[in-house]
Structure prediction request, 670 residues.
Amino acid sequence: MTEPLVRVDDVARTYHSRRGLFGRAVEVAAVDGVSFTLGRGETLGIVGESGSGKSTTGRLVLGLEPSDRGTVAFDGAALPKGGTPDWRRLRARMQMIFQDPLGALDRRLPIGEQIREPLDIHDIGDTASRVARVADLLDRVGLTRNHGRRYPHELSGGQRQRAVLARALATTPDFLVCDEPISALDVSIQAQVVNLLVDLQAEFGLAMLFVSHDLRVVRQVSRRVAVMYLGRIVEEGSADDLFASPVHPYTRALVSAAPTPGRRLTDRIVLQGDPPDPADRPSGCAFHPRCPVAEARCRIETPRLVDVGGGRRAACLPVSGDATSTREAA
Amino acid sequence: MASASPLIRLEGLSVSFDGVRVLHGVDLDIGRGGTLGLVGESGSGKSVTWLAALGLLPGKARIEGRALLDGEDLIAASDRRLDAVRGGRIAMIFQDPASALNPVLTIRRQIGEALALHRGLSGRAVGAEAKRLLDLVGIPDAERRLSAYPHEFSGGQNQRVMIAMALAGQPDLLVADEPTTALDVTIQAQILDLLDSVRRETGMALVLISHDLGVVSQTCDRVAVMYAGRIVEEGPSSRLFADPAHPYTRGLIGALPPLDGSRRRLVSIAGTVPDPRDPPPGCAFAPRCLHSDRRCTGDVPQIEPIEADRRMACVLAVHRRSEIAARAGREHTTAETVAP
Prediction:
């Protein structure tokens, strides 16, 4: 097998926060030992609820935040430290888009100039070729040259996200991290942007890390999906299989809770209790207080992500059975 | 339309801000104990409809039409009368429970206020009833939690508290405006379950406003789809989702990625929602519609019955619904390959 474009090995990130004015400092493990690989042109979706660490994972992979342990390798070499000249150079090949396009754009500049900015920063091409490139990028994301002369507030939400996408693609990156890129858009506009992402991904041969709470959208754009809960991946597999036959009890609840038009509230798994507090992580398997199939040992033993067959990995003691009888995942 | 005497009937409800009309003659009936989902994108008028009916819009809003609660017109009612209706016979909850609750008062005080105002309870009866309500909405350890402040609850629990407060006045109708939008999927499922069980227990009617078709279809018997300030389609949710009639409803359902079966390219709706200050002539959806022709830019289509219990506002579809369905089938042959 060829070397994957992105190899993430056991990354972790702990924040220190204070509870109340005189409270004790508490450690919050936002990401706690996440590993995955991503091949060229491949899309990995990360789903999870708030506090699952899915956004932090995206930031760690890009080096926007330092990892407390573990390593990230990009194109066979360790990712340079964030902020260094080497890292900045590499950033032309790794881009990111966020949920709020208005926040990501400069309100005082026409969007055409903002799409050109990465070309200036990374010193790509001469003036004439940069102008041509901007026109081409606008066209690729379904905007006109006329849009390029407008300011962010003169565009609709969907058009702004297209502009952000054009800017991210300006340096022809190999890798794009999308963090909830369509969550702020109206339903009819979401479909436009999802189709555009899928088209561009194929056209540019982009590897994508697609982070979202929306199972449907993740399935639509991803080949593989990882489900995160409290800073860890609890299940990973092909997008089609994973949603069709989830094995981890948390994934099963997530899939069953996803609303489907025309389907009434029947035989759904409704999880009891609130999502746990990352600052007060339950012992053993973090999901055990809400889990319908939890056993006594789930409170003590922390399950590892192991191969459960069919290209699927899951971190659940009742699912994987006796840990010694299952093959450890690479 | 529902039975002869609906609990609430909206008649030609229209709203303008500074001469710009954002709601165009909405007609809607909700029967006692009925459930209606109101679906639409931002700016479609789904929230404004109920804010107008309950007199909650700012003074500069111009409201026409009637909102009849058991025959009494709320649009013409005095502020005093509305104060008694709001939180009493009709309660409303919103997307963001944390900002709807008072951060410096205990939950007991806030629920107690509603109980004193609308039920005339006082003294020990308030505490007992407040505890019963918290039990009803599934807050564990209700007795102790009554002394807690909103920041001590999670987002999902705060929404439960809001529902408890809404139930304090024993309403005949609860209007829930995007009640689960700010919540995680697993918590959303809990709140929808709760709304459904509370409704069954109390017999109140429920209007659920949401941009999410799935959320609405899980909880509501009837659905009305709004676009640019008008209801474009209304009917029983099972039939509306199985066989959507209006091109906009078809578009919304086609825009939703499937969770199972084969993957297909999403059927997106081109363009954007029209600016209410500069509406297109005729049908507001015509510029984005796959089936529009000359007739669509003439008069605005009125909402008319298309079969028993279903209404739609579309010039083409009223007369040629089968043809549209056939044409849509040809255009999106790939779209129809989704496994059931």
Observations:
- The first strand of chain B starts at residue 8 and ends at 17.
- The CA atoms of residues 134 and 142 of chain B lie 6 Å apart.
- Chain B has a mean pLDDT of 88.
